[in-house]
Specification:
The protein has three helices and no strands. The termini are far apart.
């Protein structure tokens, strides 16, 4: 789950960050709760999931829309 969280968090920076960010946060939390051996990747997934949501909010503020585009 830690690796999946990392991959989804990384992918969420590019596309579908509204959906992939929270999923990455949940997967990282579950992985850390279960005591995964890959704690570093779980923390990276958690950080990237939070970054996904921060990027979404920042772009929403700039565009004044619910979604963002380049």
């Amino acid at each position: 789950m830690a690796v999946a969280s990392f991959v989804l968090g990384l992918l969420g920076l590019l596309v579908l960050n509204l959906f992939l960010g929270p999923i990455a946060i949940v997967l990282a939390s579950v992985a850390l709760g279960r005591g995964t051996a890959r704690r570093g990747r779980a923390f990276l997934g958690l950080g990237l999931g939070i970054a996904d949501l921060v990027v979404l909010v920042a772009f929403m503020q700039v565009d004044n829309t619910v979604s963002w585009s380049f």
